[in-house]
Each structure stands twice: as structure tokens, then as C-alpha cells.
Amino acid sequence: MTIDASKFLDKQGLAVESALLLATAVLDHLGRGETVEVSMVGMRGVPSSYFNVLLSRIVDGFGVGAMDGRVTFRFDTRTQREIFHGSLESVRRSVA
Amino acid sequence: MSGGSAGEIHCDVDFNVNDTPRSICALVERLTPLFAPSLKRGHLDLSDCKYLGPDAAVIIVATVLQYQSKSRELRVTLPLAPPSLTAFCEFSALKHYVSNSPYPGEHPESVTVPIKQFAASNFSRDPDPILRLVRQHVAIDLETEDYVRVCVNEVIQNVQDHAKSPVGAIMCARFIQKSGEVRVAIADRGIGIAASLRHRYPEIRTAKQALEKVIGGGVSARSRPSNMGCGISNLCNVIVNVLRGELFIISGEGMADGAPGHAIRSRDFTAGFPGTGVFFTIPVT
């Protein structure tokens, strides 16, 4: 299942609130036993808070192991990838 | 500085405030008497100043807005010359903010993104006014564009999450044609990074130490449970290491600056800034 992050934007464009909307959708699919690909294509200027919230929710719900295959991400800029990996490292550290 | 009429404090800024750390510090030091929370009326006289950039503009506007938020009065006398400076005061909206005069709208050949006050970041807004300005002058690639957005959003998200700023964040930017760079200035009038961290890290005694910690990453006030301490360290890494730009942060009694080839260095700033200011220059060509 591919989930398009750009379809889950808070009305005011707030990063944390948008991440919460996306997290709800991702958790829903994971709860049904599916694997999920999150497409970040077209998402610009995503700050670390966005990924912190999204990844924390996923890890809280399904453990840090969910990030090793059940949830994958597709990026269209190097920026997104770098900010994502910084957040993922922090989230992993926070549960270690 | 001098005492004015009926308990009014008068501050003269009779020097040019270009966009350098030294200049920002000089401005903040000069404004210090006006930062006193008990002061009811102040006068800031910029009439002998011949240059102001976005850095000065956001510091001045944040100060004016804080006065207004507490029903205090800060009169500002803007420069009447040279024409380039009076144009900056008009089209950057500095005049509008300090005197409530109507904003004339953006100048068609402007190199300035007008001053804007944010309560919160809106990371999906498009086109971002800074990028729109840059695109008017040069082509900008997708990666650089995304980095510029991330830098602005990391700063504004920090203000939203931690600063408790009564005026939100004030932002202004300028495209510098000669060097093909964009200068971005964002200031708040919040509690500062050290005060924000101290409840969780009582061992942090100075603003300089607080800056060192957040620049290193992994240290957060956790004002929201999802805060991981990535924001400022991402900002520093992106601006200095990836984009080869320059960065200056001033917060309370600390400041830090970084440039390509130099490790980011934190120092004491004894005059103190009541809030946090983040100023950076990014090459976009």
C-alpha cells in the first residue's frame, strides 16, 4: 500500500498536525497487517518535527522493528532523505 | 541613550547595521535600555543610520510588537536618507510596522521579502516568498530550494514549540545580487534557548552552554513529546556544511556563529538579547 503524504496536510499547513494525520493513516494500514510505503514526493521544506512525530507514532504503535521493512519511504529530494534519517536516528535512540 | 520627556528612554542608533554578527551585537547592545520590561515609553532614533538590513529590521519590529503587546509605547524615528534606505524602510514594511502607516506593496524590482509575523510554521505554503524573490533573479535548483524551506521551517517550528514568544516569529529576507546569496533573518521575543532547556537540563548554566548543546544535537526541552533535539543541529549542518553558507544565532546571553571551514563557535554575549535571533546567508547561484 502506498500512502501519498501530500494528501495528508493539515488545513493550516502545520507540520506536526500534518504528521499526525499521516501517522493515523499509516497506523491504520499497519494494523491491518499491510506493509506501507510512504511517498514524500512533492513534499517540500519538511522540518524534522514532521518526521519526529510520524516516526514516534509508528514506533510507539508497532515497535522500532516496523521501520525495518514494514514501513518504507520514497523521497524525491536529498533534503527529505537527510532530515528523515536524522529523525529516525533520534527516534531509535529515544527507545533504545 | 538618554532620558527623554516624562520618563521616556531615548536610544540613538547612529551607525550602520549591516548583516554581520558584530553589527547585530552592536544594535542589540544599543537597544538594551529599551528592553527593560518595566519601561513604559521609549524612543528609538534611527535618523543618523545610513544602512539597515533584514537583521536589524526583524529585531526592531520584534521590539515594537512586544511594546504593543504590553500596551507600552515605542516611538521609532526612521532615517530620511539615503533613498535606498528609505525605500528599504517602505518596501520591507518596516515603516508600516513601526508607524502603522499603510504598506505600499512589494516593489516590482525589490530584492527584499517584506517583514512577516508568524504565529506558526506553514511548511506546505507555496510559493514561499523567499523562493519567489530568489526565482525573480536567478534559477534555483530543487535541492537548494528544499534546503531553504527546511531552514526557515526548522527555525519557525522551534519558535512555535519552545520560545513562548508573545509576538511569534518575525522574518525578513533579502536577495544579495552581487554575491548571489539570500540573507534570512528571523527573531522572536521568547524565553531564549537556555531558559527553555533549563527545566530539563539543570546542569546547563549559561546560554553559551545551551547553544553548544542544541548545535550538537540530541538535546531538547521536549516542549512537545515529539521534540528530539534535531532542529538547530539540522539547521547548522544544512547551512554551514551542505550549503556552504553562514549562520549566526543570538539567544539570551549567548551567541554562536558558523561559516564554511570553521566549526560553529559559541560565545558569551553579556548584553543579552531578550529572545532568539537566527540569521543566515545561503548561496543560491
Question: Topology, please?
Answer:
The complex is a heterodimer of chains A (96) and B (285).
Chain A: E1 2-4, H1 15-31, E2 36-39, H2 48-62, E3 71-74, H3 78-95
Helix pairs in contact in A: 1-2, 2-3
Chain B: E1 2-3, E2 9-12, H1 21-31, E3 41-45, H2 54-69, E4 73-77, H3 83-91, H4 94-99, E5 112-118, H5 129-137, H6 142-163, E6 169-176, E7 181-188, H7 193-198, H8 207-216, H9 231-242, E8 246-259, E9 262-283
Parallel strand pairs in B: 2-3, 3-4
Antiparallel strand pairs in B: 1-2, 5-6, 6-7, 7-9, 8-9
What structural keywords apply?
heterodimer, A: 96 residues, mainly alpha, 3 helices, B: 285 residues, alpha+beta, Heat Shock Protein 90
Would you kindly provide a brief summary of this structure?
The complex is a heterodimer of chains A (96) and B (285). With 96 residues, chain A is mainly α.
Q: What do you see in this structure?
A:
The complex is a heterodimer of chains A (96) and B (285). Chain A has 96 residues and is mostly helical. Chain A has one domain. In chain A, strands 1-2-3 form a three-stranded parallel beta sheet, covered by helices on one side. In chain A, α1 links the parallel β1 and β2. In chain A, α1 runs parallel beside α2 and α2 packs across α3. Chain B is 35% helix and 26% strand. Chain B has 285 residues and is α+β, with helices and mostly antiparallel strands. The model of chain B has no long low-confidence stretch (mean pLDDT 91). Chain B has one domain: Heat Shock Protein 90. The longest helix of chain B has 22 residues. In chain B, the strands form two sheets. Chain B has a five-stranded antiparallel beta sheet, with helices on both faces. In chain B, strands 1-2-3-4 form a four-stranded mixed beta sheet, covered by helices on one side. The interface between A and B is medium-sized, with 30 and 35 residues.
